[in-house]
User: What shape does this take?
Amino acid sequence: MRSGTSRPSRTVVICMLLIVVFGATVTFGASQVAAQSSEPASIAISNVTASTQTPSVGEPFSLRVTITNYEASSQSAVINQLVVDAEGERRYVADDLGRLSPGAQTTVTVPLSFDEPGQKDIRLKLYGESGRSIINSGAPFAVTVRDAQQPSLSVSVPDAVSGGSRNVNVTVGNGAEHPINSVVVTADSPAGEVEFDETKRVYGRMEAGETRTFSFPARVTTAGQYPVNVSLTYTDEGMRRQLTERFETRFGEPNDVGQVILTGVEAIQRGDTLEISATASNVGGTEVSGVVISVLGNEAVRPQTYFVGSIEGSGFSTFTLRTTATDRITNAPVEVTYVSGGVERSTMTDVRVDSPQTPAPSGDRGGESSLSLGRLVAVVAGLVLVVGAGLLYRRRT
Assistant: This one.
């Protein structure tokens, strides 16, 4: 007689085994795809600028190379090497440039010079690592090298705080073998963010081989790269000549500029006196000057200022400011003004004002009230006992 439990057939068993094996294969394949989907950092040479686009033969100039790990990158990257090749030979190598996290960038200054005129094709190559991926990218660049027998122009701009004055330095080199006369140099920019205080310089005579720098004070509203047009007009052996060039110029800002913040702020109102104590801290690396702390006046508070003066980089100064308050206040607007890099800055802080605790009522009066109430209760209880005792005595008699 056959049992009620049936065994699976051999075909069913084989199918089940195939399903298990196929499932494991799919799982393994999916894990491999997931592992391979981790993309390397998105890193590249994002910008290259030259101190001059038309250097003269034998004239040293430089390239400013910006390397960026874009914000969309999934991870950081290690930059091992920047290689610069020109005219079929290696001209410069920078090693161990560090690690860049997503959104970060670094710059490298590459010195160059050429011994012959003409257009020079430059190739920049970047090598690094991101996870298990190798970074290997490049960028082309070109400059035109001019004969040293003619004047040359170059432009440099130091970093400064946006809004503050800085010098746009135009260097003129007389590469001719004879003097040039009646030299006029002009500099300006078509960019609305750049404003020149002066645009013209005049110089009488430049000897053969002489180099001279002319400075033009200017300011920018926002740090960045802007075009600068430079024109050189001069007399060469009785002939009036002109040289005009446009330079893509970087107007940078210092990374560690002075900045003042208030720390440890405490404001207390005692009657009609408002007292504010705090520390003015310079969280930047450069000195700030003209630091002033001000309580802005309103219908309840009399305006008052406290002059701190200068605070060195990473330094601080404590202060206590007192003024008059005609009414109870809970907040006081405090303004901090200072000069950093030649630019006046200000910040506003709404300070919370505390008041001393109101003293509790005297305990003597409260004690008297409690005692009076106790005595009243005792008298009433006594009367009840007396009346009760009298009634009981009458019944018995």
